[in-house]
Amino acid sequence: MSQKVQAPAIDQPLEHLDDWEESLKARYAAPANGKAKEEFRDYRAEARPSVKEFYRLNHKHQTLDFVLAKKREYLPLNKRRMGIWEAMEFLNTLVDDSDPDTDLSQIEHLLQAAEAIRADGHPRWFIVTGLIHDLGKILCLFGEPQWAVVGDTFPVGCAFSEKVVFPEFFADSPDYQVARYQTPCGIYSKGCGLDRVHLSWGHDEYLYQVVKEYLPEPALYMIRYHSFYAAHTERAYDHLMDSHDREMFRWVRAFNPYDLYSKAAKRPDVTVLKLFYEELIAEFFPTVLDW
Ligand SMILES: [Fe+2]
Q: pTM score, two decimals?
């Protein structure tokens, strides 16, 4: 029997969790019909009301205090013990109202990203990264609201960039009234490196913490920063990065097309692919991990 998201409905404006990714695709899609890339596309006007409401809640509630509280709650990694495939099956129990005949399951989405990376001849660590990169979305199954699981991530404790989607909603953040948090570097120092910077809480940071012992560094950057569009796509927050971050963000950018565009309509055959992926998982991960 499918498990329903536990957070109150008022916290769940998106009809499906994947609607956020659909909105990203619309925001960053190459203009059709040969229109010039510079042509202004107003994502504000095009965004669905549910997506706007989602960002309004996200920007209002993702404060520095909230992020620190979630880290205290989750980073002891004492919620569950399970293997990677088991976590994929657990995520698959996140059933919203999508149509099972036409919409892909979460496992199918993960396999599609991995298969697209594999088809392009990338190394095995890159393929496994594609497979697992969204497993942190199990936060939903621990009762977290959508705005604390998905959505573009951004640094907290320093000034919000205009390059973050719907920046006007930051006016509702309690942190907006804290002068110390509203300088360019805020509580951080120039060039301190992203590892010292708290990003808004969600599936990226959570999964990074779960798998950080087991994957090469480029994979960890991909996982930890794949939703940080303001940095990897809009090039904001450079003043908080160090030279190593800049080097590693090449990998984050290399990963992004697979995250955005690999979700084709074609249904992957889970039974056939499971053999290959179980072997791949065993190459990198212990049988059981702490979540
Ligand atoms: Fe993601």
A: 0.91
